[in-house]
Amino acid sequence: MNSPIRKVSIACMVLFTALLINANWLQAKDADTLRHKSGNARQITERLERERGSIAVAGGQTVATSVPSDDEYKYQRQYPAASLYSNVIGYYGLYTSAGLERSQNDFLSGTDQRLFVSKVSDLITGHTQRGGSIVTTLVPQIQQVATTALGNRKGAVVALNPKTGEILAMVTNPTYDPTPLASHDDATASKAGQALNTDPNKPLLNRAAQETYPPGSTFKLITAAAALNAGHQLEERIPAPDQLPLPQSKTVLPNFGGERCDDGETDTLIHALTISCNTAFAKLGIDLGDNALRAQAEAFGFNSTVPDFPLAQATSVYPTEKLDGAQTAQSAIGQFNDRVTPLQMAEVAAAIGNNGVLMRPYLVAELLGPDLKAISRTEPQVYKRPVSPQVAAQLNTMMQSVVTNGTGTKAQLPDVAVAGKTGTAEHGDNTNPHAWFVGFAPAVNPTVAIAVLVEDGGGELGTGGSVAAPVARQVLKAALDVRR
Question: Which of 192-206, 219-233, 246-260 has the lowest average pLDDT?
């Protein structure tokens, strides 16, 4: 055999060997990865041939279900409540998914090991494999009132049970109808997805858990907690000048709207929170130091996320770098680089209302088998203890004063004491401030805690007290009416 033929033969042998190795590698090593690729037509057909479990809200109303399909797939996902729960429930489409539909997919699709007995039973009886179902903690009446109260304004509402951590409502706006995204028609689903992904208003974003905002004066609850831990008392007079020169800076901090706090020189700690005195809390922050503020914020859950939470979360932030005096002063009143999610601020309110104990927030109440028998129920768990019962009681008293006599009067309810704190958070030039309200009711032995965030004040040049507090009042009333 001459040299050129020998070289061609060797090259062919190398190519055949590489082809055989690649084929075996794909079958043995990458088979599982390829099988579960979102665009794998066989995998799509296989999962849509199984009856996916339903998702229900408290009381049993089904908000996500699978029905027989009249196309090439056996089952079509449907969302009877349309957009009301979509930022929590999410959607389940041909190629993509979101929300609980994504995080709980193994259970809903029937592949979760907790459904092993059910799978064996289906195999023996000849039934097609079915998925398990989920019951969430969301309460329809509270979710609906929160949605209506927020209206067409951008923002979020989170309501939870401070005693258990159950999330009673999680609303974000703008939102979306998941139905087109679950369509079996590729063109319809792609068009809907493209429109939502390119919308500058970000309707796919769950603002309650996935977006952070400056907390404004709601952060004064954390500064107050740090001050009380350091030994300050409610009736103690603290510096509260009309203007506060910030250390290491040429900046002079005024009070909101140029208002005066008490006599213009000092004020009591409780009254400073009642009227949301900026200079008093900025000076408190300077005196306490940024380490004390950071430690208190992290005790409430800042700089971390809730473990095992079934939705994507953004991390609420108190700056981790060393702050100078001016930065500490701004941070103490919820500005500078403080960032929070509405979920985090609902947790702060809940912990104060629950005698200083923060329960781990959760959305999934129950897992049911295909026969709708309970497989597991979520048990409330203590998550953190950010303040002592004594400090929580003092903060409760201060927050009641905010609603009774201060900036939060529009959150008042007849015959029910409400505890709360307003916030008006600046976030850039030529933009209206964000409006906040956080609180709980009844003030003694509360059954609901809340955080309301209205982006840019809903287009109004308003405050947390004028814009967010009325939303909170409606949601608190609905929650109390349901849970009495």
Answer: 246-260
133 is catalytic: no
Closest CA to 468 of 150, 217, 171: 150
**Which residues fall within 8 angstroms of residue 305, CB to CB, at 6 or more apart?**
313, 314, 315
Peptide bond before residue 214 is cis, with ω within 30 degrees of 0: no
101, 23 contact by CB (below 8 A):
no
Give CA–CA dist 326/229, Å, rounded. Answer: 22
User: Is pLDDT larger for residue 458 or for residue 164?
Assistant: 164
| Contacts by 380-384, CB closer than 8 A, 24 or more apart | 380/163, 380/164, 380/165, 380/166, 381/165, 382/357, 382/358, 383/165, 383/301, 383/306, 383/358, 383/359, 384/299, 384/300, 384/301, 384/351, 384/357, 384/358
pLDDT digits (tens, 9 = 90+) for 48-65: 678 899 999 999 999 999
Determine how many CB atoms are found less than 10 A away from the CB of residue 365.
Answer: 19
User: Is 314 within 8 Å of 299 (Cβ atoms)?
Assistant: no
For tokens 């082809």, name the residue.
Answer: 19
Residue 88: both structure tokens together? 């929590």
Place of tokens 């903690």: 137
Average pLDDT, the chain: 91
> Which residue of the set 66, 217, 316, 331 is catalytic?
217
CA–CA dist 358, 302 (Å, integer): 13
**pTM of the entire structure?**
0.89
Query: Which contacts qualify for 61-67: CB closer than 8 Å, 24 or more apart?
Result: 61/140, 63/89, 64/89, 64/92, 64/101
Question: How many other C-beta atoms can be found within 10 angstroms of the C-beta atom of residue 418?
Answer: 27
- H or E element: which one contains 402? helix 389-405
Query: Integer distance in angstroms from the first to the last C-alpha of the chain?
Result: 96
Please tell me the distance from the alpha carbon of residue 311 to that of residue 288, in angstroms, as a whole number: 35
Query: What is the C-alpha separation between 53 and 71, in angstroms, rounded?
Result: 20
Going by the DSSP 8-state scheme, the letter that residue 213 receives in this structure is B
Supply 51's token pair.
Answer: 């009856």
